Give the backbone structure.
Amino acid sequence: MSEFEPKIVAFCCNFCAFAAADLAGAMRLQYSHSVRIIRLPCTGKVDTIHLLKALEDGADGVFVAGCLEGQCHYLEGNLRAKKRVAYAKRLLAEAGIAPERIDMFNLSSAMGGRFAEIVEEMTERITKLGPVYTAKDL
Amino acid sequence: MIVADRKPFEEILDSIKDYKKIMLMGCGGCVTICFSGGSKAVELLASQIKMAKKKQGKEIEIIECTPERQCEYEFIDACKEQIESTDAILSIACGVGVQTMNERFPDSITLPGQNTKFMGYPVKHALWEERCAGCGDCVLEWTGGLCPIARCAKKLFNGPCGGSSEGICEVDKDTDCVWQLIYDRLKRLNKLDNLLAIRQPRDWRTSTNAGQRKVKFEEAML
């Protein structure tokens, strides 16, 4: 049986994480190809349903990457995203799915290295957990 | 508005365990405002149920529908055809919505996904407090606009009781003693005399103590 390669969806803010991913590329940093980036104008655009739908429709892990707290371009979009991520974690746990499959990270546009680290961290975590519907999560 | 709170997920899952195709029905009225039963809540619950079922290795088909109001035939009739193709309906409207569905579609079972709590309003964003008990004989006129039935643990008409301490109810440290609030408000309005008036004993038949209540508006009846 081939080794499990997780699919991870990353909801990235245009002003920080997306730019950081760009920087990671410019810096020639290597990170796992498990990640699929979705560019958002702000992580405040993320709704809880987007996080759940990603897992429902084939992703094994999801993360939201927004600006450092206090540095949101729209003041509090990342703080709202943080609450929605927490809500999604609760709903997942109720459904018998490991809440660690969803997480939120904060970084600035200058942190290309950190972006690569986050992808590696999530890939490692989700690989350990296994495919979302066949793994014994909880 | 009517405030409702979603039932525990396990209870919901158990109630639909025998069905393969359900309709998940929200309501665009009160429960949308309290975040527990609107179209967004329907989407979230449907997704959660589908994931839980997949996790158990089972499948379920869910049709989502959120009419403007679930408590009137005119709005729910639009879902009739879809309802006929499902094994059961899971409603996340208030208890009135669930019963309207069961009466309108007697061949389908409509199950409740919510616990209907009270009539209240949001004292701040995402926090609702009870304000009206629907007792059928309003006393707000002489209590300074504060309801001692909905907001006093003992439903007293001559409070505060001995459990009131520094304006807080002994039942819950986060709840104000409504009789303290009534006193303060009447004092502010210079109407403390309201509390000295001798009143007839309360007739609780106007409340839920005398069976089902009805309201008729004769002139508007067809």
